[in-house]
Q: What sequence folds into this?
């Protein structure tokens, strides 16, 4: 199941991404388990924690174990009793050959009926076991996912500076899936396999210790063989993964950059490089596949050697009258069912490693530091005028590298503050500090004189609305998307906000109007329309303080004018912080903060800054000197 | 999937060998239960005697047996044996190994003629069986109530040590015939199987009379059979390894060929084909899909072909053991089939909905993540949690349902298998009672049925993921089938060498394949050497499309694009592109070093050339300050560089070589205004005589161009200098107004 979604941040699904699978994506098939996957750093600790997480299912798991034991014992008893039927049959035949006696169908019938009952009971218990365990697994998965999603909203922004969305999403889907699938499976397997091995051993011993010895001698042989093959194929498997990475990397690169490759006549170069990678992949791929494919015939071979040994010994013992013919039949059946649980037991540690590795990642996420505690005695003024002051603010994403040093500024209520500077200058940092997505390292930011850290976060943010260039809308109707600004708004209020943001007109041109569902990438409306929707959302929220990010080039001219008009309307009477690109906006701002390389280098009005003839003046003028080209 | 069958062609012989080997393997695997049944039937039950022909026979005993043979039969039997009397030279050695015979003459089976042996098998068996029955009668006269009493003979009073057969031979003819017939009649009622079993017992008795070590005979038979089994097992393992070797080579070889062909095809694609498939999809097709196909070929060769051979072979052998029990196998297969079908009918639609629900869960979580700022700004955390819980709940309940349906499979399959063995024993017991088969045969039958069911299960597992691989195959075939839309002419016109080349659009229209309307309509303009031609217009007006037509990333739908008077479609693509320095909208770098990227268009470029280009592209500072400088590594797609740095390197790459034509497709937007301006200064010095075509969003970037082409909705709405357009072109004015304050417009 590949849940790859192509997102804006990750336009190309990386073939090599995701958890390491078995050779050639056999997934959790036979090979997946055989090949050692990633390991947990603290295997025992993680497992113990996982058990604690499962404590509430204690009773149910105990019942599952009980059922597993019952089911296994009943199914193990079968062959031996069935063997008695064969013996009965055989001795009947022999008796008749020697004259006298015949096959006693009554006895055979009774034996078969007993076995039938045993098997039926075993099947019922096996199903009950699966039924119960499915519920436990599903519930664990549900709880893990819910906990992760809760945590998502408590984690500070810093975390996401270093973690991609894909990684976090992978916790919710891949890791939780791994845990729920392997946990249920391995828990029941530990019980059934252990009981099987023990039970089968007892049954085999009860038939003949000599034959059991032969059967057991085969075991270390097969273990050694399997270990050898795994080691050998692992080398090639790693090689193959590496070469596959080269090939896939080259393919991605050339396809994604095909315009450049063609423009610079790079086809031949690309092909030549590809051939080299492809050849080395081929060489390691077939070896890896061949060697890992050896496992089955080898196990089969060893199994057959045991089969032959038991047949010979059984035959000899049978003519001496030590065992019966039915015993041979039963023993052979036991031998066949002996190797499987042993292989399973051997594999369980690998499976548990996978579980632990996944669980460790999930727990690590759940353990992430949360946002700082809320203030002990929070302030919550009923209404806010909107006077925002920065007082000697220091801040750095990495405290060792401050990006804002000793910054002070005051935005009076209802005034417009423009933040300008080259791309990457840290303009959005100001915004993040204001909204307390990050906290200042030193100094303070106040609203109407209250330190923003004295507010509860929710109360603080209630005073703000944001319109960002990166328009975020979600997969719901247009109506619902605007209502996101105030969940209890009536339809009429939503439509009023839509009208104020010039949304109403274009909504009527869309199929289904306000009831139109935005698709997953919100690509069924234009970029400009999205921007207008986010403005409508902000209007509906009706905050005292606004944070705006002006649209740049991705919007056509006419929509751009609409957006500007809508933004102007929105800003009226509110304290606004505008990340500005348009000279017209910058020029009539009450205060301009000029940023460069993460620092506020100048502040003042347009005219003041031009007179100062500093960085701002240079930035401003550079656009209008004669173009050199031509 | 079938469309890729030609890739199997070079491996046809290998595949044929694999099929043959699979038959060998199946036969070897299937022979094992057969040998087991021999151990039980012959080794244990028959004491190691596998046929009713005694290999050694006392001459006197044959005389006694003759009682039950007619004249011709007697002759045939005698001819099959060679007689060694005390006079023969070999007799001494024989007598030594058989101490019990004394001086009696001995017969050794010498004939290996099938017809003779077949002819005497029945009569000899009957005679041996009859002798056995009579001797038993003599040994235990009261234990055989169903034998008729022999008139005039009181068996209980037979002197000890006297052979009943000898007595019989001396009886008057009419009496002996009556007894003979009574015994034979009883034998005939038992059926051939029982007669043969009785004969084999008589053979053992004869061997005992000869003084052979019976226990050694029996153990020897079992060990010998066991060794044969071991040889078979070894052979089967070797064959399997060989199959694995051939299959993995074939699968990997086909994958290599497929991957190469797909890559070659895609590299030849023009923009139109890339649009048709999407880059992401083409990547998946070249990587994961090929891997899928490789996997399935391997499985096909090893398991899919093997399963029916195994199942079929098992069936034939099972039927050979007991044709009357075939219906049990049929029934078992039917039940399994029904189970699988039912489970899949119930679970399949749910599987599909699980995929949708997983996507939904992902979507909700991803939206929460991408909108983290908005979610927190609006305090919508509880709302998001409710949304997630809804999706989570739905997914969990469907998952649980499917799991509970799927866990039915294992116990029921096991139960069916177990019922199968019970049924085989019950029905087999009756068959054995009717002497239609032996116990060992029944045991072998049991193993065959298991093998059949197993191969059946194996096959059904394969069919679960076969559809997925088949989709992959189709997706690959689709790529391979696609023909490139931009082709080289048969006789390309060479482009003249020049410092600058005139680029002319004459009435050009363009429509994307499959689109309803033209993106570009009647475009005509000329870009002169030594001049800058700028193209500006709102998003979607067709700016990039125009420049894409020059290096033939797409071909025009109507009209013509000329470079130095030559239709671009008449020139070779390589020749044409060798004249165009192209800087794309999205800066794309390849993994390697800064230098390897810069040299992409000109392998031979020296350090000075690189440094000049880097300086002109305003990239000197960051390249020199970077650890490693020109040799600093660039990761895939240039991921370790910022957008502005990539853009500047991408510009430098085009400047390393002197091209007559330069195209900058909105290449300055990632640069700040200052760098933008400095770069344009530097360009002036570097490529003075070339033809420059610049697509831009920012008015400030192009205000000073010699000619500005204003596009709106695919049509040219104005051409001229900034000043001219301000006066004449409304669209241009609108663009300028939205970007500049009033002062700068003039």
A:
């Amino acid at each position: 199941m590949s849940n790859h979604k192509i997102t804006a941040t990750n336009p190309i699904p990386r073939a090599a991404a995701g958890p390491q699978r078995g050779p050639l994506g056999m997934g959790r098939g036979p090979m997946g388990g055989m090949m050692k996957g990633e390991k947990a750093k603290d295997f025992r600790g993680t497992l113990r924690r996982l058990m604690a997480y499962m404590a509430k299912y204690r009773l149910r798991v105990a019942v599952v174990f009980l059922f597993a034991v019952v089911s296994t014992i009943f199914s193990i008893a079968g062959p031996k009793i069935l063997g008695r039927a064969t013996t009965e049959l055989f001795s009947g035949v022999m008796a008749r050959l020697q004259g006298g006696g015949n096959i006693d169908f009554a006895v055979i019938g009774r034996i078969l009926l007993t076995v039938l009952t045993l098997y039926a009971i075993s099947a019922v218990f096996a199903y009950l076991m699966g039924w119960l365990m499915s519920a436990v697994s599903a519930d664990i998965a549900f709880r893990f996912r819910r906990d992760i999603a809760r945590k998502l909203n408590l984690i500070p922004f810093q975390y996401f500076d270093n973690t991609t969305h894909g990684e976090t999403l992978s916790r919710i889907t891949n890791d939780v899936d791994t845990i729920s699938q392997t946990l249920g499976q391995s828990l029941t397997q530990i019980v059934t396999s252990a009981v099987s091995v023990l039970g089968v051993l007892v049954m085999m011993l009860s038939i003949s210790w000599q034959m059991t010895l032969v059967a057991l001698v085969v075991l270390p042989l097969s273990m050694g063989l399997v270990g050898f093959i795994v080691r050998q194929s692992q080398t090639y498997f790693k090689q193959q993964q590496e070469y596959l990475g080269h090939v896939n990397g080259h393919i991605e690169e050339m396809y994604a950059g095909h315009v450049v490759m063609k423009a610079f006549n790079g086809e031949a170069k690309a092909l030549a490089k590809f051939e080299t990678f492809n050849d080395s992949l081929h060489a390691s791929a077939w070896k890896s596949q061949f060697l890992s494919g050896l496992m089955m015939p080898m196990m089969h071979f060893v199994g057959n050697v045991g089969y032959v040994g038991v047949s010979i010994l059984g035959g000899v013992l049978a003519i001496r009258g030590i065992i019966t013919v039915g015993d041979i039949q039963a023993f052979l059946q036991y031998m066949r069912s002996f190797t499987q649980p042993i292989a399973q037991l051997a594999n369980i540690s690998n499976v548990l490693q996978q579980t632990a590795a996944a669980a460790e990642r999930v727990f690590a996420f759940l353990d992430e530091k949360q946002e700082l505690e809320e203030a002990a005695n929070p302030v919550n003024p009923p209404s806010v005028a909107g006077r925002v002051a920065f007082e000697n603010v220091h801040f750095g994403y990495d405290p060792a590298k401050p990006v804002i040093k000793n910054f002070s500024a005051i935005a009076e209520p209802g005034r417009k503050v423009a933040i300008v500077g080259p791309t990457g200058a840290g303009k959005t940092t100001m915004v993040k500090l204001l909204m307390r997505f990050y906290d200042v390292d030193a100094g303070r930011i106040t609203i109407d004189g209250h330190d923003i850290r004295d507010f509860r976060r929710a109360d603080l943010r209630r005073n703000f609305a944001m319109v960002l260039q990166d328009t975020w809308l979600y997969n719901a109707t247009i109506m619902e998307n605007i209502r996101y600004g105030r969940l209890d708004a009536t339809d009429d209020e939503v439509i009023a906000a839509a009208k104020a943001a010039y949304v109403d007109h274009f909504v009527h041109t869309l199929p289904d109007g306000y009831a139109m569902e935005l698709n997953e990438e919100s690509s069924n409306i234009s970029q400009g329309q999205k921007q207008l929707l986010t403005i409508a959302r902000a209007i509906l929220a009706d905050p005292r303080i606004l944070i705006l990010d002006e649209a740049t080039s991705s919007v056509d001219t006419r929509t751009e004018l609409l957006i500007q008009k809508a933004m102007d309307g929105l800003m009226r009477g509110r304290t606004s912080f505008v990340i500005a690109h348009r000279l017209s906006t910058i020029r009539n701002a009450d205060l301009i903060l000029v940023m460069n390389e993460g620092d506020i280098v100048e502040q003042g009005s347009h005219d003041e800054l031009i007179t100062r003839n500093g960085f701002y003046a240079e930035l401003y003028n550079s656009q209008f000197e004669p173009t050199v080209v031509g | 999937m079938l469309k890729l069958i030609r890739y199997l062609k070079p491996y046809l012989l290998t595949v044929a060998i694999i099929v043959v080997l699979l038959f060998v393997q199946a036969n070897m695997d299937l022979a094992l239960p057969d040998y087991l049944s021999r151990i039980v039937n012959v080794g244990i039950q028959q004491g190691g005697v596998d046929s009713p022909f005694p290999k050694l026979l006392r001459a006197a005993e044959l005389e006694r047996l003759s009682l039950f043979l007619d004249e011709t039969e007697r002759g045939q039997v005698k001819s099959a044996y060679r007689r060694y009397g005390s006079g023969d030279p070999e007799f001494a050695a024989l007598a030594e190994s058989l101490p019990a015979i004394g001086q009696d003459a001995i017969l050794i089976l010498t004939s290996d003629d099938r017809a003779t042996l077949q002819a005497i098998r029945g009569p000899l068996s009957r005679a041996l069986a009859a002798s056995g029955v009579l001797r038993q009668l003599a040994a235990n006269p009261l234990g055989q109530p169903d034998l008729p009493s022999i008139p005039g003979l009181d068996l209980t009073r037979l002197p000890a040590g006297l052979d009943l057969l000898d007595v019989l031979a001396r009886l008057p003819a009419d009496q002996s015939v009556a007894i003979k017939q009574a015994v034979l009649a009883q034998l005939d009622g038992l059926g051939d199987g029982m007669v043969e079993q009785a004969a084999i017992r008589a053979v053992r008795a004869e061997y005992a009379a000869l003084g052979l070590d019976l226990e050694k005979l029996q153990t020897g038979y079992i060990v010998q059979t066991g060794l044969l089994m071991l040889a078979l097992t070894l052979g089967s393992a070797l064959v399997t390894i060989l199959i694995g070797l051939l299959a993995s080579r074939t699968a990997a070889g086909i994958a290599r060929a497929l991957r190469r062909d797909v890559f070659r095809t895609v590299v030849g694609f023009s923009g139109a084909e890339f649009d048709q498939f999407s880059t992401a999809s083409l990547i998946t097709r070249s990587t994961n899909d090929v891997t899928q196909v490789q996997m399935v070929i391997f499985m096909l060769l090893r398991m899919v072909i093997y399963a029916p051979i195994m199942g079929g072979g098992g069936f034939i052998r099972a039927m050979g053991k007991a044709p009357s029990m075939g219906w049990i196998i049929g029934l078992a297969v039917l039940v399994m089939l029904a189970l699988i079908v039912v489970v899949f009918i119930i679970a399949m639609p749910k599987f599909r909905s699980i995929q949708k629900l997983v996507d939904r869960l992902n979507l909700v979580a991803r939206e929460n993540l991408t909108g983290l700022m908005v979610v927190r700004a609006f305090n919508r955390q509880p709302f998001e949690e409710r949304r997630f819980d809804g999706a989570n709940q739905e997914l969990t309940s469907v998952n649980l349902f499917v799991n509970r349906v799927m866990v039915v499979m294992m116990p029921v399959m096991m139960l069916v298998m177990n019922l199968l063995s019970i049924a085989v024993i019950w029905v087999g017991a009756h068959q054995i009672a009717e002497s239609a088969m032996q116990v060992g045969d029944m045991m072998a039958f049991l193993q065959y049925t298991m093998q059949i069911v197993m191969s059946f299960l194996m096959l059904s597992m394969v069919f679960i993921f076969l559809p997925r691989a088949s989709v992959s195959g189709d997706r690959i075939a689709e790529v391979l089938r696609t023909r490139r839309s931009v082709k080289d002419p048969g006789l390309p016109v060479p482009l003249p060498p020049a410092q600058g080349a005139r680029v002319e659009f004459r009435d050009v229209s363009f429509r994307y394949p499959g689109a309803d309307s033209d993106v570009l309509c009647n475009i005509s303009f000329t870009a002169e050497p030594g001049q800058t031609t700028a193209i500006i217009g709102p998003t979607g007006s067709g700016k990039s499309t125009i420049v894409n037509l020059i290096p033939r990333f797409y071909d025009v739908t109507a009209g013509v694009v000329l470079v130095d008077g030559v239709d671009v479609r008449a020139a070779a693509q390589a020749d044409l592109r060798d004249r165009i320095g192209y800087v794309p909208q999205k800066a794309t770098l390849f993994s390697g070093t800064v230098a390897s990227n810069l040299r992409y268009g000109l392998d031979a470029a020296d350090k000075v050339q690189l440094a000049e280009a880097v300086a002109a592209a305003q990239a000197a500072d960051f390249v020199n300050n970077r650890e490693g400088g020109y040799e600093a590594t660039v990761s895939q797609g240039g991921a370790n560089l910022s957008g502005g740095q990539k853009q500047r390197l991408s510009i430098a790459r085009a400047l390393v070589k002197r091209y007559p034509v330069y195209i900058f497709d909105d290449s300055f937007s990632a640069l700040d205004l200052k760098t933008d301006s400095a770069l344009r200064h530097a360009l002036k010095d570097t490529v003075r005589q070339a033809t420059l075509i610049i697509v831009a969003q920012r008015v400030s970037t192009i205000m000073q161009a010699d000619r500005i082409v204003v596009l709106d909705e695919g049509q040219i709405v104005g051409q001229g200098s900034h000043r001219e357009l301000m006066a004449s072109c409304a669209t241009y004015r609108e663009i300028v107004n939205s970007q500049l304050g009033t002062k700068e417009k003039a």
Remarks:
- Chain B touches chain A through 186 residues (CB under 8 Å).
- Residues 503-745 of chain B form a domain with the Rossmann fold fold (CATH 3.40.50.300).
